[in-house]
Amino acid sequence: MTRKISSRFRSYYSVELGKLPEGSRVSIAGYVVSVRLHGGVIFFVVYDGGYIQCVAHMDEVDGNVWGKMLEIREYFYVSISGRISYTDRAPSGVEVVMEDAEVIAKPVRMPPFHPYSRRLPSLDKRLDLRAVDLRRPQLHAIFKVRHEVLQAMRRFLVARGFLEVNTPKIIASATEGGAALFPLFYYDKEAFLAQSPQLYKEQLSAALDRVFEIAPIFRAEEFKTDRHLSETLSLDVEMAFADYRDVMNLLEDLVAYIVNSVKRYCAAQLAALDLDIPKVRRPFKRISYDRVISKLRELGLDAGWGEDLSTTALRKLAEVYREPYFIVDWPRGLKPFYIKSKRGGVTESFDLMWGHVELASGGSRVDSKRSLIRNIRMQGLNPESFEYHLRVFDYGMPPHAGFGLGVDRLIMVLTSRDDIREVVFYPRDPSRLTP
Ligand code: AMO
Q1: How distant, in Å, are the alpha carbons of 30, 73, 137, 142, 362 from that of 118?
Q2: Residues 67-79: pLDDT tens digits?
């Protein structure tokens, strides 16, 4: 079944054209990503959500129409009418032999980058003109992968019985530590943008058993790295009657499913990006923080027990561990108050690493009110600020565990980009609040 559209500009989307008989009359609309003129033959590639090649021969069209076609350049928005022709020279096996081409919107200024150019202005310059940068086929490929990652997450978790939830992004107190919050005015009170849906997802798992949320988190950290943003998309998962081992098992299955889905549904995009994502092998290695510190010392790095791992250390580890791996059992002092302690000054916690990038972190949660209050105090926070959360424990709290996965970071790794900003439509960082 083909879907015909009743629009002045188009009768079909390009994706439908290969289902029509040779010679069918169609019109399509979109913008031009390439123009080639070859001895009296002109080719356009037009993007309308997919790509379609359009061709005209100088001696087969009216002189006026040929004149109009010669004026068309990359980034022009056009409506083209013609007939379908099946041919091997078209990348999709089908092309439109043009009878007319109408310019619908003509740029008054050309962008400082050609759609297919390999020599590009800096990322910052391109981000200043992001809406136009996004018209390049390479970015179409990245954002199609992004789309598939999000679809795959939902499919996987829904199939495992998780319920998709939404939690407030305007909140009253910190969950991940006080320094990294964006304050705002909430009527006559001070409020903050949520760093994480942490406490809400824990409460929801007590009520609904298995939940997940895909939503932005906000971090007022002054980081200027390839992998930190001030606003970033997070997948948050929480399960009742589970511990950190259960959620690590779930997380590695999820990552393997996402990788397979991207390989399956984004083959053309991966080819366009010149990428071959290797299959991930399960189970992922689980290496204790203790062991990581010894390993770093063996490698000649000055790693102190109880300290967070520096970027240099993470890059060194990435040379040793080539596949995704977990660092487990982090020191108490490095993990937030809601993570459960275990013997030896460590916690039931993990970070999922891929290369030098921390993709996710999680753990078993504290399910006793007394321990939670003690941990809150130990981190220099005030239990009174968490009253809305602590009182829930009086009504019973099952053991539970979960993780937060940085979606933008995962997409950055899967598409082999050097900077997280490449995979976000309109990134926010300490120096970027527009566009
Ligand atoms: P954490 O603070 O480690 O844990 O965040 C979880 C994951 O989110 C991603 N991430 C970021 N990505 C880009 N820019 C940032 N500034 C940024 N900050 C975090 C990372 C990280 O692994 N509540 C816990 C999760 C849990 O225990 O369920 C939390 O927020 O990929």
Answers
A1: 23, 19, 12, 15, 39
A2: 999 999 999 999 9
State whether the beta carbon of 198 lies less than 6 angstroms from ligand 1: yes
Q: What are phi and psi of 432, to 5 degrees?
A: -135, 110
Distance CA(366)–CA(370), nearest Å, equals 9
How far is it, in rounded angstroms, from Cα 27 to Cα 82?
A: 6
H/E element holding 33? strand 25-38
Instruction: Read off the tokens for 1.
Output: 């079944």
Using DSSP, state whether 245 is helix, strand or coil. helix
Q: Are strands 285-288 and 325-328 parallel, antiparallel or unpaired?
A: parallel
Q: Using CA atoms, how far apart are residues 374 and 343, in angstroms rounded to an integer?
A: 16
Question: How does pLDDT run across 336-376, given as a tens digit for each residue?
Answer: 999 999 999 999 999 999 999 999 999 999 999 999 999 99
Residues 283-312 as b or e (16 or more Cβ within 10 Å = b): ebeebbbeebbebbeeeeeebeeeeebeee
Give the Cα separation of 387 and 393 in Å (integer): 10
CA–CA dist 293, 337 (Å, integer): 23
Q: Whose CA is nearest to atom 8 of ligand 1?
A: 406
Structure-block tokens of residue 265: 């549904």
Ligand 1 nearest-atom number relative to CA 338:
27
pTM of the model: 0.96
Longest dimension (CA), the chain: 85
Summarize pLDDT for 376-406 with one digit per residue, the tens: 999 998 999 899 999 999 999 999 999 999 9
Q: Are 210 and 161 in contact (CB under 8 A)?
A: yes
Q: List the one residue out of 86, 17, 99 whose CA is nearest residue 51.
A: 17
Q: Is 231 in the pocket of ligand 1 (CB under 6 A)?
A: no
Counting atoms of ligand 1 from 1, which one is nearest the CA of 420? 13
CB 50 within 8 A of CB 64: no
**Is ligand 1 within 6 A of the CB of residue 205?**
no
- Closest of 393, 419, 394 to residue 408, by C-alpha: 419
Show the CA angle centred on residue 33, arms to residues 49 and 267, nearest 5°.
Answer: 55
| Residue bearing the CA closest to ligand 1, atom 17 | 228
Could you give the CA distance from residue 236 to residue 218 in angstroms, rounded to a whole number? Answer: 14
